[in-house]
Design brief:
heterodimer, A: 275 residues, mainly alpha, 2 domains, 10 helices, 0% strand, B: 425 residues, alpha/beta, Beta Polymerase, domain 2, Rossmann fold, 3 domains, 6-stranded parallel sheet, 4-stranded antiparallel sheet, elongated
Chain lengths: 275, 425
């Protein structure tokens, strides 16, 4: 029941963002953020109920995964709004919350007993998901930057020119989301590795053997997932380093962000293919 | 009460005529006194660079000749000259006119925002001179409300229609906050000065001015709290600033592609917004190909302005619809205002009747208990208020009806007993 309420408030949040972006309604900003916060509360409430019912945080079912994703997109929107005071990015992020909340309504909620109780597991999933949603925000803002840059250079003053914010704002959103995405994704990946180490300790084997065992059991899943998550971390680490140390023009940063995002996509394709 | 307007504006009178009728700040007091001494109940004068308009409320409808006479005597001006270049409107037309003026529909540049402030100031000035009361205050409230509604509900003010303002709006699509941006103005001509004014209004961080004649740059810089630099040093400034506006009389490019490419390397390709409003152009158009440079010339800006003007004209049609609806509402509210004294008399009559009847009843029944008297008084007041509320609502709803009714039919409408099939008799 709370999920249908969450869906409703996310739709209301989205409608208010549309009102803000297309007819510049000021009150719509407050309402959009209010509804997004209510949706977040309802989603968290759903997770809490699941914890009480099952006695554990579930992460393997499509239901829980969808709720996590819905929360992550919403949190990303709220964080970027807090930093940039613009709701335009919500035009692209809130629909994901709507999609995943809808998906969770139809997803099975079968509980899996945890094989190994691990705190690392609880950290791994939220961090990786949040890291990925921030990378998505960074990708979206980069695409918007490139479109707006093109509009300004070619002197095309159509609807997108009017609706999209300034290049400066888009560059700031890209900057913030890329950095936050990198920190979260890296922390999530490290926690994933610690989880493997814990599994090894429980089975009284070395972490290397444990990794070998997992790789042998699910080769395509882990090879693609681990490789591309490492590539993603390294790529964005280099990008941030270059930006901080030598400076990177906003347009180039947008282009590199778009390229880097494909390694995030490939990580998830790896997960999808193996599942 | 009749509202009448006599005025001249940029459409009816050339600038030399408008100058002759322009009113200085120190003339208002005497002018208001003179006009109000001529059987005029209320008066408001709107005087801007593009118009001088007199709005008066009188007990009787007055002709243009009478109005010209009043103004001739009040201002000591040539009435025939005023007659040739002025317009005279009354009633609905006058109301429509003031709504249009305040909404920016009657301005030289449709939708320009300053006129609303000027109308507001005009009403305030009239108030300060004790020239307005009930009706004009009501007109003021309506005018300002409608003007704000037009600006909020239509896009009439959304798109810039001057070259310098268009430049500032473009800058806002590159830099989020002009407070942290800096601009370099190359030249000290009229266009540059206009751009400086717009940038200052947008609270730009800092402005640097350069000109071949250094003194002119210094004078302009002093006037607008900016910094002046010598002309041969402007390329150094290009390494720091975010916006460049160039309008010199040079017959060659003062910024070339190669020079700019090297400057962009020094700037670490930080975005640079350049507006070249000079003819012939000051800036090599080839530099537009360099990444993170956004170069616009005068033709680009004119194209934006023309397209925005067309958009404003479309929005003006929507604004007219809002004004039409507002005029009807205003008329109705004026009719309600006119009938208010009658309604007050009716209420007073009912209250005095209640007091008398209550007094008789108390004496007849020897009631002197204060609590019981208060209870009876409250009860009777409540019955009267409820009846009068319904009655007054029905009267106010039908106050602007032009139909003629028999007394019996009118009573039915007032007491809301039944619909009248055909009120026209």
């Amino acid at each position: 029941m709370f999920i249908s309420y969450a869906l409703m408030v996310y739709i209301l949040a989205f409608m208010n963002i549309l009102l803000r972006v297309f007819i510049s309604s000021k009150i719509a900003v407050i309402l959009a953020v209010f509804f997004a916060l209510v949706g977040l509360g309802l989603n968290i409430h759903e997770i809490a109920i699941r914890y009480v019912l099952v006695g554990d945080f579930q992460s393997s079912t499509l239901f829980d995964f969808s709720i996590f994703l819905s929360i992550a997109f919403n949190l990303t929107f709220l964080f970027l709004f807090y930093r940039s005071k613009r709701v335009v990015i919500g035009l692209f992020l809130i629909p994901f919350s709507i999609i995943f909340t809808t998906l969770s309504m139809f997803a099975p909620t079968v509980e899996f007993p945890s094989t190994v109780y691990s705190l690392w597991r609880f950290g791994h999933l939220p961090f990786v998901i949040l890291g990925s949603t921030f990378f998505i925000a960074s990708f979206i803002s980069s695409i918007m930057y490139l479109i707006q840059d093109n509009n300004l250079r070619l002197k095309r003053f159509g609807k997108l020119y009017k609706v999209f914010p300034s290049l400066d704002t888009l560059n700031n959103i890209n900057n913030i989301s890329m950095r936050v995405g990198f920190y979260f994704f890296t922390i999530g990946s490290i926690l994933g590795f610690l989880w493997i180490v814990q599994i090894a300790e429980v089975n009284e084997i070395s972490w290397f053997k444990s990794l070998q065992f997992i790789l042998a059991a699910y080769p395509s899943f882990f090879i693609i997932k681990i490789s591309f998550s490492m590539i993603t971390c390294i790529y964005f680490a280099i990008l941030i380093l270059i930006k901080v140390k030598y400076g990177l023009p906003p347009k180039k940063l947008a282009m590199f962000t778009v390229i880097g995002f494909f390694s995030v996509i490939l990580t998830y394709i790896g997960v999808g293919v193996s599942l | 009460m009749y509202l009448t307007l006599l005025g001249l504006n940029h459409n009816s009178a050339p600038i030399d005529i408008r100058e002759q009728f322009a009113i200085q700040e120190d003339q208002y007091n005497k002018l208001y006194l003179n006009i109000l001494s001529k059987d005029v109940s209320e008066c408001c004068i709107i005087s801007t660079c593009n118009r001088v308009e007199f709005y008066i409320f009188t007990d009787e409808d007055i002709s243009k000749d009478t109005f010209l006479e009043i103004i001739e005597e009040a201002m000591s001006v040539d009435r025939y000259k005023l007659d040739d270049h002025s317009y005279h409107k009354s009633g609905r037309d006058a109301i429509e006119h003031i709504f249009s003026v305040a909404s920016g529909l009657d301005s030289l540049v449709v939708g320009e925002p300053q006129v609303l402030g000027q109308v507001k100031d005009a009403f305030q000035r009239a108030k300060d001179n004790f020239a307005i009361s009930t009706f004009m205050l009501h007109l003021q409230d309506y005018t300002l409300k409608i003007a704000k509604k037009v600006r909020t509900d239509t896009g009439i003010c959304n798109n810039p229609v001057s070259v310098s303002y268009a430049a500032v709006e473009l800058a806002k699509k590159i830099f989020d906050n002009l407070k942290s941006a800096s601009a370099l103005i190359i030249g000290a001509g009229e266009m540059c000065e206009l751009a400086i004014k717009h940038f200052i209004t947008s609270e730009i961080g800092s402005i640097i001015i350069t000109n071949r004649t250094y003194e002119k740059a210094v004078n302009l810089a002093n006037e607008y709290n900016a910094r002046a630099i010598e002309f041969d040093k402007f390329t150094e400034a290009l390494e720091e600033v975010d916006i460049v506006i160039s309008s010199t009389g040079a017959d060659h490019f003062i910024i070339t592609h190669d020079r700019m490419a090297s400057i962009m390397n020094t700037r670490k390709h930080k975005p640079l917004f350049i507006i070249d409003i000079a003819v012939p152009r000051d800036i090599d158009p080839e530099i537009a190909k360099i990444d993170n440079i956004y170069l616009y010339d005068i033709d680009d800006l004119k194209q934006i302005v023309e397209s925005n003007k067309k958009n404003r004209e479309k929005e003006a049609k929507k604004a007219k619809e809002i004004i039409d609806v507002a005029i009807n509402k205003f008329y109705k509210s004026v009719e309600v205002m006119k009938i208010n004294p009658v309604l007050k008399d009716v209420k007073d009559f009912f209250i005095s009747t209640k007091d008398n009847e209550l007094k008789k009843y108390l004496e007849k029944n020897n009631i002197d208990n204060e609590a019981e008297i208060a209870k009876l008084d409250t009860f009777m007041s409540s019955v009267i208020n409820k009846q009068l509320h319904n009655l007054f609502t029905n009267i106010k709803t039908n106050v602007d009806s032009k139909k003629i009714h028999t007394l019996a039919d009118a009573a039915k409408i007032i007491f809301n007993q039944e619909e009248i099939d055909n009120g026209e008799k």
